[in-house]
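U., I forgot to send this yesterday:
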Amino acid sequence: MRIKLRPSRKVYNPRRINRHMNRNDDPLVSREVSIRRDQERKRKTAQHKEMENREINRESNAFRQSVDASNDQYMRDALTKVRQSNVTHSETLTRMNGTWMHNQNLKPQSENLE
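Result:
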């Protein structure tokens, strides 16, 4: 009995074979490089979490600082002295700085009439 050997007629489609391979896959890298990349990823994640925590706490910290300043006797006395003082900046300086309109309202009425 003789066995007939035929050449294989199966034609392999390369697209079908390689369908699980993604062109965006990173090439193989050394262990040190992958460790560095992992450390960098962890550092960025930690920084991002820290920034989110600061953003969340910003309003409460500002309120707390405001309350602390209003309860500070030294700050209250200093603000009272500033309000009683007649010292002001020159008109030219305030015009250049952009605060001229605000400072005009702070001057006593007698100076505005002149």
